[in-house]
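hey can u run this one w/ glyoxylic acid bound, need the structure tokens asap thx
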Amino acid sequence: MKPKILVTRAIFPKIIEYLSAHFDVEDNQSDEVYNDAELMRRLQGKAGVFANPSHKFASELFNACPDLKAVCTMAVGFNNIDVPAATSAGIMVTNTPDVLNETTADFAWTLMMAAARRVSESERYLRAGQWQKSKYDDLLGRDVHGSTLGIIGMGRIGRAVARRSMGFNMKVVYHNRTRLTPELEVAANHAQYLALNELLRTADHVILVLPYSPAVHHLIGAEQLALMKPTATLVNIARGGIVDDAALIAALKAGQIATAGLDVFENEPALNPEFLTLKNVVLTSHIGSASVSTRDAMAYCAADNLISALSGERPANLLNATAFKS
Ligand code: GLV
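ok here u go:
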């Protein structure tokens, strides 16, 4: 008998077929977003789950699902999964790192350039029929080339963001939990390590690429925004909650910083409605990794992790080594 698995949200039909060769699959192609109780009910008797960031996996769920052996999320971020609790319950947890580095770095740049050069504002102006003639000071933005790029979170995606700056003649400063090796700093366009506040004072464009954990909740709040240049751009492609959204709205309204490019929000998809009233912000719907080839690669990566986990092989992207029993 094949092991039973749950796929929590809709996914490419070919992935359901791929998983079905190994598992008895309960899918959710209608894409209903299950509440906690429904998720728990559907996980009864399941050995594995193909998950994504929209559901929380906490100790109550693990305790109520004694057959569960693996939670394989189709995302690099796994702050929705209580990994220590999973480990205590003997449940393997995997994510999908690496396959999305370049696509997500591209998107950080997309938001930085769109915000700094006021792309959304210009499009709204044009679509509203307001472009009757061109004037010398229409929608003047800030240059990206030749500026100082500040990256907070210098993991694989942060370093891919930094590498792109070489063609733009930029200086890179970064902040990270631990300083990079000299070799990695050189490869990241000679990135210079700075303390957080120093980075915020120095950078023209700040990009957040760090993983979320309670320790970095509201890392960027009113105090930190006050340190930034009034001409600065703030980009968040990491996770909602790293930025205090109310403080950011106040800073954007007051002109304390010039602009922001945001792909993630506190309580998304229900973002703070005040964002919608602001001109100086570019808003996107958590699509950092959303390219055709990368979402495909992420889906196969999560599926392969699940296949390995439930066939006694160590999954390639295991986050909790001690949960693996060979
Ligand atoms: C997306 O946000 C991810 O963590 O992959």
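The chain has a mean pLDDT of 97. anyway lmk if its weird
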